[in-house]
UniProtKB/TrEMBL annotation:
All residue ranges annotated as the LIM zinc-binding domain in the record: 8-68, 119-179
GO molecular function, one term: metal ion binding
Statement: the UniProt record of this protein carries the keyword Translocase: no
Record's subcellular location: Nucleus
GO CC annotations on file: nucleus; Z disc
Pfam families: LIM
Keyword annotations of the record: LIM domain, Metal-binding, Nucleus, Repeat, Zinc
Record flagged with keyword Nucleus: yes
This protein's name: CSRP3 protein
Amino acid sequence: MPNWGGGAKCGACEKTVYHAEEIQCNGRSFHKTCFLCMACRKALDSTTVAAHESEIYCKTCYGRKYGPKGVGFGQGAGCLSTDTGDHLGLNLHQGSPKSARPSTPTNPSKFAKMMVDVDKCPRCGKSVYAAEKIMGGGKPWHKTCFRCAICGKSLESTNVTDKDGELYCKVCYAKNFGPKGIGFGGLTQVEKKE
């Protein structure tokens, strides 16, 4: 029978979907506002949708419901997910054996180690993260703290020197710690006594 007066029916709300508001997935039509994950109700698009028969899910909920179960099957690279999906109404414990793991991890994660082992800047004493780290004198420094201790000039690998855990530009280092005398920049003239 022909469908007079409208488009296809929405796969979620069963109301008419007109062309201007239509999203098609798995041979079915949806309103843009009805194109939501059936578990968590997050809005979907062509890159985040995962269809299973007549159901649509975000990739995370689809993985929780239909993906592999057990130790070693996480949601991303190198992850082990402990999220059961119970808060989303997903019954994931059907047929999957309980793992015999201790309730607290015996080895802290890489992330936990990174948060504990964050380097401290010798100049300001605050944490130095990888995005802002510059190495000088064998220690990590903030880019903004990587300056001469005397003149405050910003330093680079070509003009930095260190002494006793502090950084100096080559000019200030030579003036304050270099050799003294004629030809070394400290004395320009020698007084003669007659």
